[in-house]
Amino acid sequence: DRVDGGLEAEQEKQVTFIRRSAETLLEFVNDLLDLAKVEAGKVELHPSEFQLVDFMRGLRGVLKPLRINDPVDLVFEECEAIALIGDEGKLGQILRNLIANALKFTECGEVRVRVTYDRRLGTACFEVCDTGIGIAPADQLRIFEEFEQIAGGLQKKNKGSGLGLALSQRLARLMGGEILVESEVGRGSTFRLPLPLEAAEGAQRDRSRRSTRVL
Ligand code: ADP
Fold it and tell me: How high does pLDDT run on average in the chain?
């Protein structure tokens, strides 16, 4: 916080290393605790009414500051203006993880996020699509297990615990859904989450499909 005066360039660099290490450790400990809590059956859902448009905007707002000078575009497709009932917090946790992964494993092209809602089935389908390194068929189940990371070029460059997808899948199942993956090595991956979510009464029914790009 520079309460004792400014920092030299080298000090600044070292402080940044320390902060990053602390953040990585904190993320790891939080993932471990969350996973242990789900396994112990102690995680409860807290459903509430939320606007899908606001939820997606919030997600975009959290990820936007990370996109400075990045060659990969993060595109959020505009979604239906509808109010849904569900655990917004846990849904956000899953999607943040899927989007962060997509960005980590994509060097050029784009990461596209979209959601559609099927009123007849009462199901929302969230999708995170990337043009990244892809995942071989043999690894596509393994990545949902704890501590599993695929050895490869981008793995070394990125931090990560190998717990994100394991935790996300457990949270998705707790909500009655399942994360599915389709991927081709060298072309990219699509992570899909179909989730039963009830539409709230009096929801707006205006549909629009324009795309917005996060710069
Ligand atoms: P972490 O990202 O912390 O390593 P995750 O459980 O979220 O752990 O992911 C497990 C592994 O699955 C990653 O390390 C990576 O090898 C692979 N993976 C996940 N998402 C993608 C993606 N979008 N493209 C390519 N590989 C991915």
Answer: 88
